[in-house]
Amino acid sequence: MNELTGFEQSMIYMTLVIAVIGLAYALYLRAQVLAKDKGTPEMQKVWNAIKTGALAYLRRQARAIVPLIAVLTVALFLSVYIVPPTHDAVEHFKAQGITNESTVTLIVAIGRALAFIMGALFSLSVGQMGMRIAVDANVRVASEARRSFGGAMKLAYRAGTVTGMLTDALGLFGGTIIFIIFGRATPDVLLGYGFGATLLALFMRVGGGIFTKAADVGADLVGKVEQGLEEDDRRNAAVIADLVGDNVGDCAGMAADIFESYEVTIVSGLILGLALTALTGSLQWIVFPLVIRGIGVASSIVGTFLVKADSGKDGRDALKAINKGFYISAAISVVLFALFSVFYMKTNNAVELRPFLSVALGVALVLVIDKLTEYFTDTHYKPVKDIAKATGGGPATAILSGMVVGKESAVWTTLVIAAAIGVSLVIWAGSSVAYVLYGIAMTGIGMLSLTGNNVAMDSFGPISDNANGVAEMGGETGECRRVLDELDAVGNTTKAITKGVAIGSAVIAAVSLFGSFITDVNTVQKALNQPLMTGIDVAKPLVFIGLLIGGTIPWLFSSIAIKAVERAAGLIVNEVRRQFRNPDIMSYKIEPDYEAAVSISTQAAQRELMTLALLSVLGPIIVGPLLGVEALGGFLAGVILSGQLLAVYMANAGGAWDNAKKSIETEPRNKANNTGKGSERHKAAVVGDTVGDPLKDTSGPALNPMIKVINLVSVIIAPLVVTYTGSPISIAIGLALVGVFGWVVMNSKKEPAA
């Protein structure tokens, strides 16, 4: 901080204050939510069952994760001794009077290890606290729906905003504190912070996704298709597990997912900003992204607070109100970004607007992806209507129609992201590659500057879904159920939109990290007097091999995740069928054994965590030592492209199938016209939705943290790869890890005990 001007120091401390205000705002909203009544005794009985299952799952997940955090903390501490701190870090501590390089190495090693712990704990905390407020809110939203549409909508959104602001403010708080302590040495330390956040997000996203979709698929196939029951009929033994899964998958998983994207863009932004600082001698390239994030938090506070639909009557009013809040936040942030840039960013005494334009591009990219995803997944547009129409031909045509929608949406979303990167090239035309990569990183910063709004929109979905389930199982009918059905359908759209934003931000963050990878490689190559790697030449056979291998990883990862859901869903189907054979359950004389399905889902989720985490971590560690640093670059490019297309396809196809089902459920029930719940079209739509569930809520979203785990691991090991590739030890380690990788894949195919 001593290297900053007085104004720069004031802005950094102001950013820290804004982070604290964001946390206080989250606590304020939480108090508002908890002040509402919890409804009828029947509602509270359902709510208690959901809460018990959710907390039990998270406790078990934490017990599985903590030992791994301990091991990796040691590994990250030792990584600084294998690859010494950067030149900038050494110079920073020399300016502080610490000239002994061994002491500098120790300080950076301790900093990276502690930052890893902080990133992991913050990611875990965001997920856990987000899930808890979602569980506490669902029964209150169900109760509020008995009184007014606007009240229920506002309460569900504000509960989601608690999670959003925790994600936003904690992410900003952690990054700013590290910068205040470590200054120009921050990128060395932030690698640990980003890796901790990303790895925990992978665990929570994968675990929560497997849990929720195993329960959902099992509940729908037996309850809806075989028995013709309602969505959350309390005789269905899997409904509580399904409702628990909404919270541990969508709330805890998405919050941790967005949190790590938030941190990864800061990591890449500061690494690339440091490269520009070395070129220009100005620290403004590092200060800029931190202050921009602070402005984003402040803008989210204003926009989310103004969201309300008191005069609304249906889902269109609710979606309009939520979008309005986002647009207000976006407008405020862009204006403040521009003012800050004009006042602060200078090059040769002239205003430097290019970073602002890159950040504004990120905000615009979010808006475009929002609308694109809404078009492909909302009930009011042609793609979902086409799927609903296709259900007249049965499950096969419904599934084919959803695949068409998902694949087309992946094309347009990818082209939009490509266009955004192209615009960034235009903005930075005439500048070196370092400036262009910094601009792309700022686009990622802009995309996630309104994280509070994005996570609020996402959490709104499972909160509304759970509220609907609580109301149905609690015996509510009439206007209360109509209100909650409307909010549930809106929630499906907002979840799909935020998944689109999460995937898009993951790609931009990965491209930024790709730039950081090249920057780190060049730093080591300069020190070793090696030729600099200026790009990735796919004409080289080894690089092309790396590209092909990278392209396969998202497919293998998705295969294992979906297989985990299929296995667990099969066990739940058998359990639900077994319980339905009890006539006392069917006649409401006794309650089903909900705990059995919760236990099956919990065990399935935990069983696959380490398998999928190891796949993500081992890939780059194998490719780098065996094929070289350029091949590792090709590997990363393959992962990014393949992962982006596959993730968007799965997320949007699943969302479209879900809303096609919802649109049929809102039709008048008429057997002769084959419309409404219980019709053959409805059964076909349920099958499509069941197929889409593990795509949109398990494997698709889990690709986001997987892409960034692979990129961060590559950035961390890049100096090692440059230094030791071709050595006998490097080859031996690579070959040994090939064996481990094969064992992991084979182990994932083992069938669990019934």
Topology (SSEs and partners):
Elements: H1 6-34, H2 41-82, H3 87-95, H4 101-144, H5 149-182, H6 186-226, H7 239-280, H8 284-305, H9 315-344, E1 346-347, E2 350-351, H10 354-377, H11 382-390, H12 395-427, H13 433-447, H14 451-473, H15 479-527, H16 541-580, H17 583-586, H18 594-627, H19 629-665, H20 680-724, H21 728-748
Antiparallel strand pairs: 1-2
Strand segment count? 2
Biggest sheet character: 2 strands, antiparallel
Helix residue percentage: over 70%
Number of domains: 1
List keywords for this structure.
mainly alpha, 754 residues, 21 helices, two-stranded antiparallel sheet, 83% helix
Give a quick summary of the entry.
The chain has 754 residues and is mostly helical. The chain has 21 helices and 2 strands. A two-stranded antiparallel ribbon has the order 1-2.
Explain what the structure shows.
With 754 residues, this protein is mainly α. The protein is globular. A two-stranded antiparallel ribbon has the order 1-2. It has one domain (6-748). The relative contact order is 0.13. The N and C termini lie far apart (59 Å). α4 (101-144) runs parallel beside α6 (186-226), α10 (354-377) packs antiparallel against α12 (395-427) and α18 runs antiparallel to α21 (728-748). β1 and β2 (350-351) form a beta hairpin. It contains 21 helices and two strands.
